[in-house]
Write a structure and sequence with these properties.
It is a single chain. With 318 residues, the chain is an alpha/beta fold. It folds into two domains: 110 residues, NAD(P)-binding Rossmann-like Domain (Rossmann fold, 3-Layer(aba) Sandwich), CATH 3.40.50; 174 residues, Rossmann fold (3-Layer(aba) Sandwich), CATH 3.40.50. It is built from twelve helices and twelve strands. The strands form two sheets. The protein has a seven-stranded parallel β-sheet, with helices on both faces. A five-stranded parallel β-sheet has the order 2-1-3-4-5, with helices on both faces. Strand 11, helix 11 and strand 12 form a beta-alpha-beta unit.
């Protein structure tokens, strides 16, 4: 606990919306912002009560060892795979995220990638910028094509709503969803892979889900189908994906995430049938503003001893 008369210290490790940080500064805490100088993080945490991160900072057990007074970790985003939850649990440190902040941003990117893949626009854009005016080859309409979601939470449901104007049948595999909440049909994973023209990944990164989409499951997809991953790179066996595309067993893929980031040297980056983006699903002004405000509001609730809305870790021990 802070010494008598000393405000709790909240360390901001990664760039977070500036207006949100100013709101935090008005709260009952001292804000220590080291987002522009990550080398100062360990020193800043020596007497910290709270830590706010995005995805850049890896909150490891070793980092936590140097923060003996830490009681709260806030993730300005959805995924918490950059935080060692087991180490935080052992210390009774509460971990909270902002689960709804980036929903619209990631859903819109997903729809954009579906449209780019359907029309085959990515290579055409590159050719045109390089000076080649080629109108040969035809793309496809997205309209009427089946989109299958692996994971059917907030983002996938928002994508399904966005696809309504194109009259796309939607299906989903999600063992945690007992009944459909819209016109989406719930299917076993293998059946979804067999029926979908586009398979869009929205599952969490867990040990059980590592390489969920492997060679065997890729083989169940149509050779005319596309894979879209805006979730986490570990969901896909990238070597198997590359092999499937190379032998014509899959039409292509759009990947916003990779198992190792940045994916330096990955053959997927240069492949003409792969549309890569640099993990920017949540990177909109609006999405980051919402994430910053949401995690600051959680921090202020934690400081006030109020229940947390985005709690993903355990309540602190007495």
């Amino acid at each position: 606990m802070p010494a008598p008369g000393k405000l709790p210290v909240v360390v901001v490790a990664d760039p977070i919306d500036r207006a949100a940080i100013e709101e935090l500064r008005s709260g009952p805490c001292e804000v220590r912002d080291v987002s522009d100088d990550p080398a100062q993080l360990a020193r800043a945490l020596s007497d910290a009560w709270g830590l706010l991160v995005r995805s850049r900072t890896k909150v490891t057990a070793r980092l936590l060892e140097g923060a003996p007074d830490l009681k709260f970790i806030g993730r300005a985003g959805v995924g918490v795979d950059n935080i060692d939850l087991a180490a935080a649990t052992a210390r009774g440190i509460r971990v909270a995220n902002a689960p709804a902040a980036a929903t619209t941003s990631v859903a819109e990117l997903t729809v954009a990638l579906l449209l780019l893949l359907a029309r085959g626009l990515y290579p055409r854009i590159a050719e045109t910028k390089a000076g080649t005016w080629s109108r040969s080859g035809l793309g496809h309409e997205l309209s009427g094509r089946t989109v299958g979601f692996v994971g059917y939470g907030r983002i996938a449901r928002d994508v399904a709503r966005g696809l309504v104007p194109w009259r796309c049948p939607t299906a989903a595999f999600d063992p945690y969803v007992a009944a459909p909440v819209d016109a989406t049909e719930l299917l076993p994973l293998d059946e979804l892979l067999e029926r979908s023209d586009f398979v869009s990944l929205h599952a969490a990164a867990t040990p059980e889900n590592r390489h969920l989409i492997d060679a065997a499951r890729l083989a169940k997809m149509k050779p005319t189908a596309y894979l879209v991953n805006v979730a986490r790179g570990s969901l896909v066996d990238e070597a198997a994906l590359l092999a499937a595309i190379d032998r014509g067993a899959l039409a292509g893929a759009a990947l916003d995430v990779f198992e190792v980031e940045p994916p330096t040297g990955s053959a997927l980056l240069a492949h003409p049938k792969v549309l890569p983006t640099p993990h920017l699903g949540a990177s909109t002004h609006e999405g980051q503003s919402r994430a910053g405000r949401a995690i600051v509001e959680e921090t202020l609730r934690a400081l006030a001893g109020k229940p947390l809305e985005g709690l993903v870790g355990p309540p602190a021990r007495p």
